[in-house]
Each structure stands twice: as structure tokens, then as C-alpha cells.
Amino acid sequence: MKKNISIVFMGTPEFCVPILESLIDEYNVVGVVTQPDKEIGRHHELTPSPIKECAVKNGILVIQPERIRKDYQEVLNRKPDLIVTCAYGQIIPKEILDYPKYGCINVHASLLPKYRGGAPMQRAIMNGEEKTGITIMYMDEHMDTGNIIIQREVTIAKTDNLEKVHDKLSALGRDLLMETIPLILSGKNESIPQNNDEATYAPIISHEDEKIDFNRTAKEIYDHIRALSPFPGAYAILDGKTVKIYNCYIKEEFYTEKKNGEIGRIYKDGVGVSCKDYEIVITDVKFEGKKRCLMKDYFNGNDPEKLLGKIFE
Fold first, then answer.
1. Which pLDDT does position 219 carry in this prediction?
2. Are residues 266 and 300 in the same domain?
3. 0.90 cut: is pTM over it?
4. CATH code (residue 154)
5. Around Cβ 311, how many Cβ atoms within 10 Å?
6. Mean pLDDT of 114-143
7. What is the pLDDT of residues 209-230, one digit of tens each?
8. Is 252 in the same domain as 188?
9. Same domain, 176 and 223
10. Among 82, 217, 266, 286, which is disulfide-ready with 292 (CB 3.0 to 4.6 Å)?
């Protein structure tokens, strides 16, 4: 039997779907707020967010304001006892924050105050962090600055890419939230102010952020590639065309003597590219206008020797 508490959930991407599904199973979710449908792909097909699809599937009212700061009355009309947000994508106005009896709480994919902002998972991997986690916090009028209710960390394995970290944190966010809501309802939860002096930031990934700089170390490039794999994919330019790069490994036994970005060796599974110190072997790519493929499969129909001496820019 569902617990007698009314919840409005606010979120947008796939990351949030397990969280919403668990809330629907346990509580009375009276409304879901998500971003407006967006045009996706070459044909600009209007596509709902994963959270909208989940809400519609479960027969829950969906609210999609262009700007929640100006268009929030429908949220208040649902009379929520608690509002839960996760990767919604807009700053929540004070009128909403002040309404629920039990407050507004956010599920954030970092160990706050580190990595405040819209791309905490990508930035943590990109920076070579060995751990990250989930923070459940009270919301205030600023970005990810509210009091911390609870945190739990996970390890970022050296081979983890964005997809693996995403899945770990999505499941952890769901489980931790289900543990935390009963504490909030009973008044037994913590509410710990963040230390702003320790804050770091995780701005949304721009197209320029996706570009690989081969003047950096092999480890920095490796972390950059896995932080953006499989989406949106790090990229470089080869022969004037974009190449998306999804996976690589480091060859520390070869200290580079080639130009940074130069393809200097051919391996069974990829191409060796010089970096600031060592060499990375690129194994999984998407050439412009082609489908994603493993380099070893690309070699089956192309002469790999023709790549030698070419430079990624």
C-alpha cells in the first residue's frame, strides 16, 4: 500500500527514471515536471524526455513549463507535501521551494560541495577522480548550495566510462532517496550546511569541451575520452573531418618522440597516437559520415598503413 504523502517529481533525463519509478511504487506522485519536448535528430522530430515517457506510462499528470520561474502555479495546484528534483535543468523559484510541508529535496550526482552544476559525472571522470557519489540535499534559491541531508560515495574504476558511472549513480540515487524520505517525514534527518570554501563546479559540457587536446598527457586524454563515452563522444579532426573517439588505452612503454596527435604505430586493435608524454591506442571510433566501429574492424576494409604519419588536430 502506498504511503499517504503527495509528491511532485521534477526531472528530465534517463538518469532520473529509476528514481521516479521507485517514487511511483511507494508514494502518491501527483505530478511530474519536466522540460518541454525537444526536436531531436536530422528530421527534428519532437521528442519527449525520458521522464515524461515514464510519467505518461504510469498515468501521471505532466507539467512542462518553458520557464518554471514564471510559470509555476500548476505545480502549486497539485498541493505537494514534498517535492523531489533530480537533473531537472532549471532553477526552481522561491514560490515552489517554500510551498511543501516537508520541503524540496534534490538528488545530485556528486559529493557536494564538489562538482556543483549540470555535468558532475562528466567533470569528475574528466578530472581523474577516484570516487564520486550521490548527495541528497535541501534546495535553496542557488545552484546546488542547500543543506546536505545525506551522502554516499562510489568508486570510479580506472576503466569506468560515463555510461558505467551514470548507471552506478542512478541506482544509488534511487536507493538512497528511498532510505532518506522516511527520515525526512519523521524529522530524523540531518541538515548540514555546505562549506562553500570547498566548492568546485561542473558546468554543462560544451562542444568545445568535447574536443581532444593531444598536447596533454596520455592520462588526461584517456580520462577525457571515457568521461564523454558513449555520449556525446570526444572528438578530434583528422584530414579535415571529425572523428568521434569512444575508447582507448595507454601504452606507457612508449615514450613519444612523434608530434603530439601523430599516428605513429599500428596495432591489431587500434592506432597509436602520440601525446605529451606517452602514447594512447585508439580502439573505438566513428568517422564522419560513417557508423561507429572498432578500429580492428575498420582495418578489415582499409589499409591501416595509410594512417601512419597523419595528425589528429
1. 97
2. yes
3. yes
4. 3.40.50.170
5. 17
6. 97
7. 999 999 999 999 999 999 999 9
8. no
9. no
10. 286
